[in-house]
Design brief:
The chain has 10 helices and 13 strands. The chain is an alpha/beta fold and about 325 residues long. It has 2 domains: about 70 residues, Winged helix-like DNA-binding domain superfamily/Winged helix DNA-binding domain (Arc Repressor Mutant, subunit A, Orthogonal Bundle); about 220 residues, 3-Layer(aba) Sandwich (D-Maltodextrin-Binding Protein, domain 2). Strands 3, 4, 5, 6, 7, 8, 9, 10, 11, 12 and 13 form an 11-stranded mixed sheet that branches. Strand 8, helix 7 and strand 9 form a beta-alpha-beta unit. The longest helix has 29 residues. The N and C termini lie far apart (about 60 Å). It comes from Microbulbifer bruguierae. Pfam families: HTH_1, LysR_substrate. This is Hydrogen peroxide-inducible genes activator. InterPro entries: LysR_HTH_N, LysR_subst-bd, WH-like_DNA-bd_sf, WH_DNA-bd_sf.
């Protein structure tokens, strides 16, 4: 029987949702920064309070019971509601809270944030950003669930529950090995890419699908047998002669200062670009501050990286 004298704690609900999302007690413990025994104890206490089992363990991992599945979405809404309640209280008390969870894609964050965070910190002395990397699909999901407060993601994003501020547009550079027939050209024509073997990242990355669309449009061949796990891996695969690639302009600017083994060029008459924007929940109490933050981000990107990207007006 459920214990009528107790109600689940926020911590227990958060633990429940995290385990359900990751299907693993071990990964959930790492994500939450707690020991696995402590996590197990809290889930057992939650199950005792509710009078039912939430998880079952199998070879496939930690799975939700039917009862757990029935309660999961409501638990997510409760967590999000309490987080927004706390955020609203902070806005009322201090104008805006000082710590935010920022999500960024791994193909953008390491090459953008070092250029903008110092200037952002000097403008907002009390601002703290807890940065996590994840593919855009998971970032948008995390925004809805309250795991992130704001995120920088590729546009367009067509979601009524999210507010979007465009930030900048980034070019994609065409990269070939030094001994490739197109090496030495500052620009290549779309017809010269027809039939080329193009490397890209694994399909869990949004960047993979962007490159796939480019290949379909230009008549190039996407190399599915050789897919990189990161932009650095992709770059090394080009160096080894496994194919050619498109790399984000900010990555090239940040990591390829002396690319003697590679040659970087532009696509003539049809430049390839990707747009990025700052996104947050439309209902967020700090939405006015997020819009202000987006404006300052555009200013900083223009000052620091205006020769690499095009900043939105």
């Amino acid at each position: 029987m459920p214990n009528s004298l107790q109600t689940p704690s926020f911590k227990q609900l958060e633990y429940f949702v995290t385990i359900a999302s990751l299907t693993s007690y071990r990964r959930a413990a790492e994500e939450l920064g707690v020991s696995q025994p402590a996590l197990t104890t809290q889930i057992r206490a939650l199950e005792n309070t509710l009078g039912l089992s939430l998880f079952e363990r199998s070879r496939a991992g930690t799975l939700l019971t039917p009862e757990g599945r029935a309660l999961l979405e409501q638990a997510r809404r409760l967590i999000l509601g309490l987080r927004e309640f706390t955020a609203h209280a902070n806005v009322l008390a201090h104008g805006h809270q000082s710590t935010y969870k920022l999500g960024v894609p791994p193909t953008l964050g390491p090459y953008l944030l070092p250029n903008v965070l110092p200037a952002l910190h000097s403008r907002y002395h009390h601002l703290k950003l807890y940065v996590r990397e994840a593919p855009p699909r998971l970032l948008l999901q995390g925004l809805s669930e309250g795991s992130y407060d704001i995120a920088i993601v590729p546009l367009p994003v067509n979601r009524d529950d999210l507010a979007i501020e465009p930030l900048f547009t980034e070019p994609l550079k065409f990269v070939v090995p030094a001994d490739h027939r197109l090496a030495g050209k500052t620009q290549v024509t779309p017809s010269q890419l027809r039939g080329e073997k193009v490397l890209t990242l694994e399909d869990q990355h949004h960047f993979h699908h962007q490159v796939q669309e480019i290949c379909e449009r230009l008549g190039a061949h996407l190399q599915r047998d050789y897919e990189g796990t990161s932009l650095d891996t992709l770059r090394q695969m080009v160096v080894m002669g496994l194919g050619v690639a498109f790399l984000p302009g900010l990555y090239v600017h940040s990591e390829m200062h002396n690319p003697e083994a590679l040659h970087v060029s532009e696509l003539k008459s049809k430049p390839i670009r990707r747009q990025h924007g700052l996104v947050w929940r439309a209902s967020a109490p700090a939405r006015g501050f997020y819009r202000e933050l987006a404006g300052h981000l555009r200013e900083i990107v223009f000052d620091r990286l205006g020769d690499v990207v095009t900043v939105e007006k």
